[in-house]
Fold:
Amino acid sequence: MSRPDEPAVDLALARAHGLTDDEYAKIEQILGRVPSFSELGVFSVMWAEHCSYKSSRRYLRELPSTGEHVLQGPGENAGAVAIGDGLAAIFKIESHNHPSFIEPRQGAATGVGGILRDIFTMGARPVASLDSIRFGPLDDPLHRRLLEGVVEGIGGYGNPVGVPTVGGETTFHPCYRGNILVNAFNCGIVEADRIFLGTASGVGNPVIYAGSKTGRDGIHGASLLASAEFDAETDAKRPTVQVGDPFTEKCLIEACLELMRGDAIVGIQDMGAAGLTCSSFEMADRAGSGIEMELDRVPQRADDMTPYEMLLSESQERMLLVAERGREDEVTAVFARWGLDAVVVGRVTDSGRMCVRWHGETVVDIPVAPVSGSAPVLDRPVCEPAALRERQKLDLASVVPEEDLAGALEALLDSPNLCSKQWVYRQYDQRVQGNTVIAPGGDAALVRVKREDGTATRKGLAMSVDCNPRFCWLDPYQGTLAAVAEAARNVACTGARPLATTNCLNFGNPEKPEIMWEFAEAVRGLGDAAEALGVPVISGNVSFYNETLGTAIFPTPTIAIVGLIDDWQRHAVAHFPRPGLALVLLGETREELAGSEWLALRRGLEAGMPPRVDLEHEARLHELLARGVASGTIVSAHDVADGGLAVALAECCFMGRDLLVGARVELDEPFRPDAVLFGESTGRVIATTEDADALLALAVERGVPAAVIGETGGEVLRIASSRTGESWIERPVGALRSLWERALPRRLAAEEAA
Amino acid sequence: MFAVLRFPGSLDDRDMVFALKSILGVEARLVWHQDDRLPPETRAVLLPGGFSYGDYLRCGAMARFSPIVADLKRFADRGGPVLGTCNGFQILCEAGLLPGVLVRNHHLHFVCDLAHLRVERAAAPFLARARAGDVLRIPIKHGEGAYTLAPDQLAELEAGGQVVLRYCDAEGRVVSEANPNGSVGNIAGITNPAGNVIGLMPHPEHAVEPAIGGTDGLVLLGSLVDAVGGGDA
Structure:
């Protein structure tokens, strides 16, 4: 099967493809011969870390993935949960880190495009996007440009496809200097009995290629770019970044959803990482079938493409469908109406083999199961990082107490991590589809659920994406518990019940035992938290090799959780909606300054054991929030997280649009004031209520510590000690808001001026 | 029947139908851009927001060649009411139904926000529910919303009372800080001389429910329903 114009396949070429000696031996064993050049390419992408999950698989299969709401767990394009009214929510988060660092605009744009295809592939209309993006410090001009490019890419793709971006997080830390993170989440709605899967079943059924033409872009994106560390040669990898076309994606969404309302489609899968290769193998594998394909029929953008290039191209906006035999014309007609190519490129067979022909010759003939189903599963060595114990040490007594509490609050509100991200969100369409109840800027986003026929339901979906990488670096297990707890708490603050979890696990090089240990600990935390909080993990993505010249990012398990609210009109907002409400702090404040934003910003220290997470308390708190909001007892609820109680209180005062509501607060804790104000104890929520007695009674009933700490009103945020009467902070909320609002534009304007 | 035109790349088309049908209770239908004729029962035509044909060329420049636009022109010439929002406004300008053009926002970024709009002229069929001087709050979301035209055309537009909506602050002051995109004269919406064709960058269809964008969009869409009648739902 070797062709004269292709390189001869040997071990050296296999190594250049990123395959190990063992893997190459296994290929020869599976085939019983030397692979063709195209086959070598196919194996190299299918077995690359990015597609095969070979390092992570043995950990991921331990995660809880079932539950009463779960309709589809991991293994498909995305997970699905039932939300009542015969509907299901389909969601997933995915990374596009490496491409976004190399080419931020296209990297981020195609990240959004890829996650959208995962959702509508299953028959769901994508209804809401979130993005978790992390950069190096903003005083680095490269990272200001990366931020601007990534935001432009997310908006430049998300806006023209008509899917609102309703939330996310944007943070900065030196650990992302060499590797930024771009994690894109999308959630869609589908009728629960109309979920489509990526299976190639029914011998003789046509395999149809639809969407953009295949070009030379993105070849080896998954294997060379996403499955290796960055080094001095990274810039040379720019050709492996794909280019997106949101207009084609929008037409694909409409054409696919239109087709999926009928019964001509058997299975459908997007061509994402590793393109035509990965999608056809996965579809055949799920059905236990085979596929034969004629590459000559594939619509091509470039002249003289080789079979190797066609099989490995990662050109965007392409779908692979298996249709009912005899319905080919019906399918292609719908795509034609939307101006899209759709061509029958092959048939489903019962051979269990993938046979690909080109110019009448067989260029690939591989048994399906050994490649996709039996991909290597590694048991990489793990070892606790030598420096871990050292960085977990913090003697709080030796940390100089904050001398200027109000000044510290101002500094925190003005810091890149805690300041307003409106500069980012203003560039995204937050409103298209007309369901955005809580737009970016609250704890979780809240969108009303509509049916595909356009009629509204009373249901609402709340969603949030969270991670505190510093906690995870100090203790990946505790840090991941905190991330899951925070995402669920944010969702619960709207009044929704958290339903299920998706995750994007961003780590360094898994070949290093210390990184693998961090990963194993994080997955253990994810499993424990998901179990305890009743939010099974229904989809996810792993991104390894976020490492440059030997320096890895902080372990960053980004957690996204979706929750359901039965009547979206009965929801709580995060901000203080009006004066005269009682302020109730739910949860306990402990003397936990370790790992806090205050400690990093004001003392330059990132050390100590991160705050303890009490999962049983969290579960009780979420239940309390759901009941309190549904009954109307809780009017607003805001999670206390980065920056502690003082920052959370300030946010409550000014986060409401066109609304400034001050508060008088008295706090009573027997330890240092900076720990009271800026410590980041988990499991806390600031709630407001008309009826403090009722809320306290409900808290007692649900077993959640609660205390009235003040009331809303005036134009000043005043926080004092109830023990000493000493005034800790007294600032007009208008002034705090303008600090918070201007922090990001001010830093970015520095670039324009330069 | 209210006809909502659907081009490839239209985005707010379904939202416009929702506003008309589910909120205002009138019959509304999507009409495909390749159709030659508007349905005979059409009482008003709405051009929704979006990125028709991806707007890779000048916004709206491709859409004006769609077959349905020829019949839209005939409909407008007969005095039929036509409302274009966002990309719909851009298409109406490109098609010559409205003067001027919409170019890239002066700050070069896409902007999604709630805009305050001062009603300059409260006339049927689009603004009869308002009074001149009223301040409406309606979402905007666009990258190319800076309305511009030649000085003599602008003078004509102003003299003819064709400027019906201007960006303003919450108190109704037309100031440059309230201009979200660099539009000349803070112009947010205009009509043709006859007053039966309106184009505006803000999205009234996204302000029809109290908790989702507010209800000020109903001033525009409700006025239109009042004017042409909608009892045929």
